[in-house]
């Protein structure tokens, strides 16, 4: 009887695994992750830099660069890797003035792309740049404000500001520094920050306001948390003291996101507002979080794999003939005004949207 039960369990397990794999591997023509990622990655290579006020590389470009590199590595596209290296090379010479200053979470995350290039090439120049950005995030400047000094005295980054965006901007560069150096101080920093933000900002339903004084659940803002948590959890040592708290926060968010997913697979600009428009960058970030959770075994595949698949198919329909993602909310600061979020302009090709689409394409190609 026991043998019969075990055989049945094996068959059911195989059928379940196959169904899960089909959700993430078998896509109709026009929505295959490999092809979609290639379109978006090569489009990025050909694009001009996106700058803050015409001066420094914008974090959205860094996010897209990271996605293009992840895709290139997954597909072993050596041509693309070389093109992405060539795009970075001028930063060592004539484009060096475009490097962001090391004084803000949005600027410091530039180090993450340098770390990714180091992991591919082992060129020490990339590592040097990456470490400068990672370390300066914890090195209190001489002209620090009292609030910044207060955060530093408690062991947090002096750049802490309790905006949910930070849980990608801070954690990505610290996590990549950990992967490059093996020094646990970097991932300890990222985990400590993540727990602070979870304790201060997560709502009872698992979602997040844009900021403590802005009670609106903005899709892309929440998306930074949705991406930051699984990316950190993948590399966080299993015995790390902060792992249970971060996993708790991640699972609570995923459960709530599943409940607010639209029938067409998308999520709205304000997640919990049915009369708001479906927004692509937030949708892509939530989809990525689902994909990673299923692949890592943290999320129930029977529930979340079909949800991720539905979202991906909806997302691909929002890529136009020029390989631009449409319906992307432009860069948005916090504001305690619901209509403000409703009326935000939508850009085609905005790198806030191109980036998480690339993350999803790379993730769908496997662990």
Structure description:
It is a single chain. By secondary structure, the chain is mostly helical. Helix content is 60%, strand content 3%. The chain has 16 helices and six strands. The strands form three sheets. A two-stranded antiparallel sheet has the order 1-2. Strand 1 and strand 2 form a beta hairpin. Helix 6 packs antiparallel against helix 7, helix 7 (124-136) packs across helix 9 (166-181) and helix 10 packs across helix 12 (243-260). The two termini are 37 Å apart. Keywords: Hydrolase, Signal. Pfam families: Glyco_hydro_88 (PF07470). Substrate binds at residue 165. One of its GO terms (molecular function) is hydrolase activity.
The CATH architecture classification is: Alpha/alpha barrel
Overall morphology: globular
DSSP strand tally: 6
Task: Report Rg.
Answer: 20 Å
Order of helices and strands: HHEEHHHHHHHHHHEEHHEHEH
**Domains (count):** 1
* Mean pLDDT over the residues: 93
Helix content: 55-70%
Quick one: CATH class? Answer: Mainly Alpha
Tally of DSSP helical segments? 16
Quickly give the structural class: mainly alpha
Distance between the termini: 37 Å
- List the strand order in the largest sheet: 1-2
Largest sheet, in brief, is:
2 strands, antiparallel
Are there runs of 5+ residues with pLDDT below 50, and where?
1-19
Strand content: under 5%
Q: Any idea of the CATH topology? A: Glycosyltransferase
Binding site for substrate: 165
InterPro entries: 6-hairpin_glycosidase_sf, 6hp_glycosidase-like_sf, Glyco_hydro_88, PolySaccharide_Degr_Enz
Signal peptide: 1-19
Pfam families: Glyco_hydro_88 (PF07470)
């Amino acid at each position: 009887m026991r043998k019969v039960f075990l055989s049945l369990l094996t068959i059911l397990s195989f059928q379940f695994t196959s169904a899960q794999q089909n959700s993430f591997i078998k896509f109709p023509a026009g929505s295959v992750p490999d092809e979609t990622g290639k379109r978006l990655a090569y489009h990025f290579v050909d694009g001009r830099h996106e700058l803050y006020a015409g001066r420094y590389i914008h974090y959205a470009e860094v996010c897209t660069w990271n996605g293009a590199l992840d895709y290139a590595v997954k597909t072993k596209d050596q041509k693309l890797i070389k093109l992405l290296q060539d795009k970075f090379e001028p930063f060592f010479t004539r484009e060096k003035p475009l490097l962001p200053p090391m004084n803000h979470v949005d600027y410091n995350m530039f180090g993450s792309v340098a770390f990714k290039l180091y992991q591919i090439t082992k060129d020490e120049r990339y590592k040097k740049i990456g470490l400068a950005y990672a370390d300066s995030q914890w090195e209190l400047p001489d002209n620090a404000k009292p609030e910044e000094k207060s955060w530093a005295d408690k062991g947090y980054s002096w750049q802490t500001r309790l905006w949910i965006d930070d849980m990608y901007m801070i954690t990505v560069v610290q996590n990549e520094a950990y992967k490059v150096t093996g020094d646990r101080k970097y991932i300890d920093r990222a985990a400590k920050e993540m727990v602070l933000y979870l304790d201060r900002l997560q709502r009872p339903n698992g979602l997040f306001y844009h900021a403590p004084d802005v009670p609106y659940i903005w899709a892309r803002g929440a998306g930074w948390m949705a991406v930051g948590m699984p990316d950190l959890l993948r590399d966080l040592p299993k015995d790390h003291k902060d792992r249970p708290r971060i996993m708790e926060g991640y699972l609570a968010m995923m459960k709530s996101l599943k409940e607010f997913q639209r029938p067409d697979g998308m999520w709205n600009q304000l997640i919990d507002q049915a009369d708001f428009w479906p927004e692509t960058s937030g949708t892509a970030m939530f989809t990525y979080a689902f994909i990673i959770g299923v692949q890592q075994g943290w999320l129930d595949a029977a529930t979340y794999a079909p949800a991720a698949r539905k979202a991906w198919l909806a997302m691909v329909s929002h890529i136009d003939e020029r390989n631009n993602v449409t319906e992307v909310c432009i860069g948005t600061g916090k504001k305690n005004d619901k209509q403000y979020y409703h009326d935000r302009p939508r850009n085609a090709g905005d790198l806030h949207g191109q980036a998480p689409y690339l993350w999803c394409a790379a993730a769908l190609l496997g662990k």
